[in-house]
Amino acid sequence: MTQHGIHHVTAIAGPASRNVGFYTKTLGLRLVKQTVNFDDPGTWHLYYGDEAGSPGTILTFFPWEHVAPGRLGVGETQETVFRVPEGSIGYWTHRFIEKGVAFDPIAKRFGETALSFRDPDGMRLALVAVPGAEREPAWSAGEIAPDHAIRGFHSVSLLLEEAAPTGAVLTDVLGFRQGASEGSTTRFEVPGAGVGGIVDIRAVGGFLKPRPGGGSVHHVAFRAADDAEEAAMAAKLVENHGISPTEQRDRNYFRSIYFREPGHVLFEIATDQPGFAVDEAPADLGRALKLPDFLEPNRARIESVLPALGEPA
Ligand code: ZN
């Protein structure tokens, strides 16, 4: 059965070693791939996720050592939200106090308990308690016990002028259905919304324009099972929405097309195939710098310019 929803989220970070420390140690995600930005090979591209690097669990970063902080604005992803087991919000609150992580008071959203917090670059993140998540597999080789470990993405929220045009792309092309509304937020869900199955649109006409930088989400990628489904989605974008995506690009671990959705957020459609075990064994994911074939001849030079990563957990 074809699974839809979020494939990965990519954001901009400050120093790579700080990014690795926060996501692998403080949050307990697995570093599943060390590679470079294929369009800018002197820059890291770091991928975090569950044990297997499953679609719907992957948060990636382009770390820049001296990046200026971003400022949130309309036409951007506001918050990236992870799923945790129902009883674990208290554990995470204590952990954030212990680790000096900035967080907001616990809030209810659509009947769910949410704990919003920031990463060291000010990226807006949250944990939402999901009943039954404790029965799902977790990456638990680090400091976080499986009872509390993150289980992939819950959702992203998009800050937009208006909900309808973007909602039409989500429902017609990307496999979502319109759900409930709460205040100015409209929820879109993949039927049976599991990992990565929710997009919330916050309609805030007249808000400031964004200034992308550290802590900003660069793009959100959505799942296509394979090339054929991705091509069918691209055709629908052109025919039904007047949006022309890029031609397909081979990202080694998935194959992607990109487009600006009507609310100006950069969207990607990425295939589930072939996944992160295509160039290293599942047990070894994320342990060594992997390069696509076209960059392999430049490995020595690339390794000499990449900043040190530090030790992942
Ligand atoms: Zn991407």
Could you please describe the fold and organization of this structure?
The mean pLDDT is 95. It is globular, with a radius of gyration of 18 Å. It has 313 residues and is α+β, with helices and mostly antiparallel strands. It has helices at residues 16-26, 89-99, 164-172, 227-241, 299-305; strands at residues 6-13, 30-37, 40-49, 58-63, 76-85, 107-109, 112-118, 124-130, 153-160, 177-182, 185-189, 198-203, 217-224, 249-250, 255-260, 266-271. It has one domain: 2,3-Dihydroxybiphenyl 1,2-Dioxygenase, domain 1 (Roll). The longest helix is centred in the C-terminal third of the chain and has 15 residues, at 227-241. The strands form 2 sheets. Strands 2-3-4-1-13-16-15-14 form an 8-stranded mixed sheet. The protein has an 8-stranded mixed sheet with strand order 6-7-8-5-9-12-11-10, covered by helices on one side. The chain is built from 5 helices and 16 strands. The two termini are 34 Å apart. It binds zinc ion (ZN). Zinc ion is lined by residues 8, 10, 219, 221, 268.
How would the blueprint of this fold be written?
Elements: E1 6-13, H1 16-26, E2 30-37, E3 40-49, E4 58-63, E5 76-85, H2 89-99, E6 107-109, E7 112-118, E8 124-130, E9 153-160, H3 164-172, E10 177-182, E11 185-189, E12 198-203, E13 217-224, H4 227-241, E14 249-250, E15 255-260, E16 266-271, H5 299-305
Parallel strand pairs: 1-4, 5-8, 9-12, 13-16
Antiparallel strand pairs: 1-13, 2-3, 3-4, 5-9, 6-7, 7-8, 10-11, 11-12, 14-15, 15-16
The structure holds zinc ion (ZN).
